[in-house]
């Protein structure tokens, strides 16, 4: 699947030209868009931007953000998708759909920039920083979303849909290790972590993550979950988080099981994606971490692109830990 980063802005430009050419539309206020007509319940992001779901009477509206169709959250809630790219995929995918308390929709497209960034060794474009120390460098990237007032949450671990070559025992063990790494802030360095997030796991769950093959976020069901299912376009893992202001409400993680080679152990990894690496990365999203830049510190756990057998990212680096500490 090829994604078009500029599809929305292009659509806005096209819509603007149409409005300019249509005399009847001239009376519409720019900040008071009319209620567009969904097609099969779906509005394109460009048409949904700025609408009021309450005034328009939209109850089960879905929005298509560059091919990912999500259920619009209730007023006061923002849903965010963050997806990690595997080999052969040029960029990660991300977007947010926010509905404010009054019902106004705002769509943000593209890999999401944290609200605070103090990166010390970021490269630019395809150029990595000249020198780099995983245990000493990396940005402090904080978006401020977190589990609060208590740090912890319960993650339901689904026990079906596992890809071939990954046993249930191995899957449960890997999620347990990923939980431990994020929960305790375990790094590949010599830092003492000093905090516990108190993430609880429920193994053997039948809960289904509200993440679709198109990286659309479904309807929030009140249960955070992780499980396997197909994801299009070379994406290895995708996480939807829902939040009210900065308070996380739910995190759902899908791991790709569409004809992908996963490795459940570092010893036997060959031309395969390391399952624990991706699970740890997605759990980072589930507690509110956003992506670290790929260039300059591409081996941090929260860098967005994964390479085959890249096991160093199973444990956090300095930039990951600092981001986690800023949140908790
Ligand atoms: Zn990610």
UniProtKB/TrEMBL annotation:
Keywords: Hydrolase, Metal-binding, Protease, Signal, Zinc. Residues 1-28 form the signal peptide. SUPFAM superfamilies: Metalloproteases ('zincins'), catalytic domain (SSF55486). GO terms for cellular component: extracellular matrix. GO terms for biological process: proteolysis. This is Peptidase M10 metallopeptidase domain-containing protein. One of its GO terms (molecular function) is zinc ion binding. It comes from Agrococcus baldri. Residues 249-322 form the Peptidase M10 metallopeptidase domain. Pfam families: Peptidase_M10 (PF00413). InterPro entries: MetalloPept_cat_dom_sf (IPR024079), Pept_M10_metallopeptidase (IPR001818). The keyword Lipoprotein does not apply.
């Amino acid at each position: 699947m090829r994604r078009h980063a500029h599809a929305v802005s292009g659509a806005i430009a096209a819509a603007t030209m149409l409005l300019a050419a249509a005399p009847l539309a001239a009376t519409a206020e720019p900040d008071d868009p009319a209620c567009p007509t969904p097609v099969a319940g779906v509005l394109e992001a460009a048409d949904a931007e700025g609408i009021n779901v309450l005034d328009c009477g939209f109850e089960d509206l879905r929005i298509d953000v560059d091919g990912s169709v999500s259920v619009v959250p209730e007023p006061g809630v923002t849903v965010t998708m963050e997806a990690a790219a595997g080999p052969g995929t040029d960029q990660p995918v991300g977007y947010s759909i926010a509905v404010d308390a009054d019902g106004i929709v705002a769509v943000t497209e593209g890999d999401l920039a944290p609200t605070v960034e103090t990166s010390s060794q970021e490269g630019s474009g395809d150029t990595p920083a000249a020198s780099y120390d995983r245990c000493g460098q990396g940005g402090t990237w904080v978006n401020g979303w977190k589990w609060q007032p208590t740090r912890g949450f319960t993650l339901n671990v689904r026990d079906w849909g596992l890809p071939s070559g990954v046993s249930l025992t191995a899957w449960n063990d890997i999620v347990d290790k990923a939980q431990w790494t994020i929960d305790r802030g375990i790094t590949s360095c010599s830092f003492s972590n000093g905090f516990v997030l108190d993430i609880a796991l429920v193994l053997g769950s039948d809960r289904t993550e509200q993440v679709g093959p198109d990286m659309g976020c479904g309807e929030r069901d009140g249960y955070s979950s992780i499980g396997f299912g197909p994801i299009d376009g070379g994406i290895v893992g995708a996480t939807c988080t829902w939040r009210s202001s900065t308070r996380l409400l739910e995190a759902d993680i899908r791991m790709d099981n569409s004809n992908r080679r996963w490795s459940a152990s570092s010893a036997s990894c060959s031309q395969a994606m390391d399952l624990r690496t991706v699970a740890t990365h997605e759990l980072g999203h589930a507690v509110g971490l956003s992506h670290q830049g790929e260039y300059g510190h591409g081996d941090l756990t929260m860098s967005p692109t994964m390479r085959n057998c890249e096991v160093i990212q199973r444990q956090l680096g300095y930039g990951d830990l600092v981001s986690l500490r800023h949140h908790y």
